[in-house]
Amino acid sequence: MRLVAIAILQYQDKFLMQLRDDIPTIVHPGVWTMFGGHLEAGENPDLGICRELQEEIGYIPKQISFFRSYLGDQVQRYVFYGVLDVGLDQLELNEGWDMDFLSAAEIAGGSHYSQRALQERPLAPSHQQIMLDFLSSSESRINML
Fold it and tell me: How far apart are the two ends of the chain, measured CA to CA in Å?
């Protein structure tokens, strides 16, 4: 079983997502996902998500909270959420093909145009479902105020 920590990162009324590299041998190639990744052996998910965000975008939100855990056949996902107080220009894309802020409508629609890929790319279905769960949750309503 793989253990991963991923983050729902909100900026104003949009959400930061990563367009994964289009390499067939990686998980979710060429699709939009949340930032995060595998936990190291014995690593606490709270610390793992902070490490992953520092590695991938060079930024950790001032506060990051646990949302839910999702258990799949081969993966356990620990999902966190936080509010970004910086724009794309202050983030470093250290992993992935592109990053952008997606609206709730784009998340519901399941795709977003990438300026780097120069094409519309789908969201990974599992990540889209997690985002939809968040958008319908009380945590989302609190953050939208």
Answer: 37
Residue range of the domain that includes 80: 2-144
CATH number at residue 17: 3.90.79.10
- Based on the structure, what is the number of domains in the chain? 1
DSSP β-ladder status, 64-71 and 32-33: unpaired
For 141, the token pair is 């309503």
- For 94, 111, 135, the CA distances from 131, given in Å and listed in that order, are 23, 13, 6
Give tens-digit pLDDT for 119-139: 999 999 999 999 999 999 987
At residue 20, the pLDDT reads 97
Between CA 19 and CA 123 the distance in angstroms is: 9
Torsion angles phi and psi, residue 43, rounded to 5? -75, 135
Exposed/middle/buried for 34, CB within 10 Å: 0-12, 13-18, 19+? buried
pLDDT in tens, 26-39: 889 999 999 999 99
Task: Quote the tokens at residue 99.
Answer: 């990053």
CA 9/CA 24 separation, integer angstroms: 26
Name the token pair of 70.
């999702």
